[in-house]
Amino acid sequence: MNILFSFLPKPEQQANLIERFPHVKFYFQKPFDEETLRNAEVFVTYGEDINASHLEAADRLKWIMVASAGLEKMPLKEIASRNILVTNVRGIHKIPMAESILAHILSIKKSLPIIAQNQRNSIWSKKVYSSELYGSTALILGPGAIGGEVGRILQAFGVHTIGCNRSGEPSDFMDDMTSFSELKRALPKADFVISILPSTVETKNLLTNEHFHCMKPTAIFMNFGRGDVVKEEVLLQALQNNYIAYAVLDVFESEPLKEDHPFWKMENVVVSPHVSSHSSQYIVRALDIFTENLTKWLDEDPSLINVIDLERGY
């Protein structure tokens, strides 16, 4: 069996794979050689470097392991037509992303940006208007693995959590649940609206101008899922018209964010360059999932984890 990686794990991680699976031929190439892909049965990728033309040539390909959660840049229709199995690393982002989200919330609520600015300007001022998380409400769009971890931590701070998904069915660490169709009724209750939604047909442009009208003028909107959940002009208008107080953005419709974009200069916007999931443990956790699935694959065990529904895109 030939397995092609289009990114480079650390040398010791590569060696561990080779030692653990001696009957497998591993290729680690960045950028990858198309001839190697043509002969590969398994392709391990971040999901941004494979297109439909690659699939036409890779006639031996049976399984694509995506070392990220997002699949929106992949040719899913063509993959589905070939009946190629796709799995991803859903779940490994929950710790670093939950920590990042909490860090931003605490930073704003405890006025850390103002304190840091005062330090740079040598200003001793106690006029910092900090507030507590205790007793507030967070509406979490996408209460899956990441959203559940965010909910668990926020509940420890005394925050009431409301989860929102397509069906409204219960999710872990959510005090209440709502559905996409009932979202407008829940928004007026939320002090934090946190989107961790993937990019799918159902979530693209889910949030409209009407949704931001429903939010508290003191609300903080946070997007750590995908940038296309809301059109940037809609969000910009909501901030400029004070429909909401603050936005923390780790993802954008177009990345990198253009140098002349208004978000860079706005005092009530935090621009985070899609780094919330970064962690020294990222590849370690991704390879743990891969090795578990590869063991099952070689044993012809169909119960692989994180198998993607290619019609839904998640």
SSE inventory with pairings:
Blueprint: E1 2-5, H1 11-20, E2 25-28, H2 34-38, E3 42-45, H3 52-57, E4 63-66, H4 76-81, E5 85-87, H5 94-109, H6 112-120, E6 137-141, H7 145-156, E7 160-165, E8 176-179, H8 183-186, E9 192-195, H9 209-214, E10 220-223, H10 232-240, E11 246-249, E12 269-271, H11 282-298
Parallel strand pairs: 1-2, 1-3, 3-4, 4-5, 6-7, 6-9, 7-8, 9-10, 10-11, 11-12
Helix pairs in contact: 5-7
Q: What does the model show?
A:
- The protein folds into two domains: 2-91 and 280-298, NAD(P)-binding Rossmann-like Domain (Rossmann fold, 3-Layer(aba) Sandwich), CATH 3.40.50; 94-271, Rossmann fold (3-Layer(aba) Sandwich).
- Helix 5 (94-109) crosses helix 7 (145-156).
- It has a seven-stranded parallel sheet with strand order 8-7-6-9-10-11-12, with helices on one face.
- By secondary structure, it is an alpha/beta fold.
- Helix 10 links the parallel strand 10 (220-223) and strand 11 (246-249).
- The chain starts with a strand and ends in a 16-residue tail after the last helix.
- The protein is built from eleven helices and twelve strands.
